Amino acid sequence: MLEFDIQDKLILVSCESHEMGYLSRYSNRFRLVFIVEGTGTAFLEEESYRYEKDSFFLIAPRQDLECISPQRTRVLVIIFGLFRSINHKAEEPVTSFLNLYQHVQQIFLAKNISQGMRISDQTDRESVARLVPLLRNELLHPQGYSKEIAINVVFILVNILTRNIDNASGGPVSEYDSETNRVLNYIKDQVQQNNRLTIRDIAKGLNMSEYNLNKIVIKGTGTTLKSIIARYQVELFAEP
User: Global pTM?
Assistant: First the structure.
C-alpha cells in the first residue's frame, strides 16, 4: 500500500482491494475509487455491483466498499479533505481546492450515478485510462513536482466525471424534483440543529412513514437516507 498525503486536502492511496480496510480512519470523508486492475463484484450499502478495469465508485462518508474477486484487484483511492457544506453550484471548472470540493459535492449529489460504471464518453474514458496510471506512478516514484502533478490530475479527473454526469442527466447534477428537494432541505436543516438525528425523527417531522421517506430519497437521489444524513453530518460539522 502506498499513501500520498497532500496537506490533508487530498490523500492518494494505491493498494489492493483487500487493503482498503486499513483506510477506515478516513471513513468520514468522501472517497473516489478507481479500479486499476481486476474484475469482480463489489458490495456497497447492501447492494452489489459488477466492476472491471476503469470502473469507479463514489464512497460517501460512513460507507465502505468491499470487492470480491478470485483474482487480484488493484485500486486507486482518492480521499478528499474535510470541508463544510457549500451552498452554491459548482459552475466553473476545477482550478482550486475550494472549486474541487464544490464539484465533489455536486458529483455525490448526482441521482443518475451507477456505481461501478465507466466513463460513458469514449474520448474521456481513454483520457481517464491514461490519467489514473499517471497518478499512480507519481505515488510509486515521487520526484520533483509530483505533488503539483498529482493535484492537477485529480482536478482533471473530477472535471471529466462532472462533465459526463452532467451530460448523462441533461443538466446540472444537483437538480431534483420539488418533493425530493423539500425532503433534502428539511433533512439538512434538522441535521444542522441536531447532529444525532434519526430516520424516525425525520419521518415524524415530515408526517410520513419511514418507508415512504426512504422511498422518496432513494428514487430521487439514487442513494439511501442513511447516506444522505451521514453526508450532511460530515459537511456541516467538519472542520473548516
Answer: 0.68
